[in-house]
Design brief:
The chain is built from no helices and ten strands. By secondary structure, the protein is an all-beta fold.
Length: about 100
């Protein structure tokens, strides 16, 4: 199956986080446009996750350690690890989840 990112409708999954989502049998990919100041509260999930910052500065806390990430930075998040984040500037992020994030479908 082929997709054009421009043709995928954006959904506001949580306040300030607008996602274009693509799902396969075993993975979900989320392309986020994030408003400055938007926060993801601390949470964990069964999915393994890779997060890449495409644009902007994103403050991310993983297992109690907070760092600021910039374009090109990638974070690997193991299943059930607590994490949270905040956009310090307008951001574009990409998340890859395995298995598929059923609640994002």
């Amino acid at each position: 199956m082929n997709y054009s990112l421009d043709a995928i409708p954006s959904k506001e999954i949580m306040p300030g986080y607008h996602g274009k989502l693509v799902h396969s049998e075993n993975i979900s990919v989320a392309f986020w446009t994030v408003e400055k100041g938007a926060e993801v509260p601390e949470h964990s999930h069964m999915n393994e996750q890779l997060m890449q910052v495409l644009e902007g500065e994103f403050e991310f806390t993983l297992d109690g350690v907070t760092k600021i990430y910039h374009p090109g930075d990638i974070v690997v998040i193991s299943p059930w690890k607590k994490h949270s984040g905040k956009a310090l500037t307008p951001c574009r992020l990409m998340d890859v989840f395995s298995p598929t994030r059923e609640e994002y479908k």
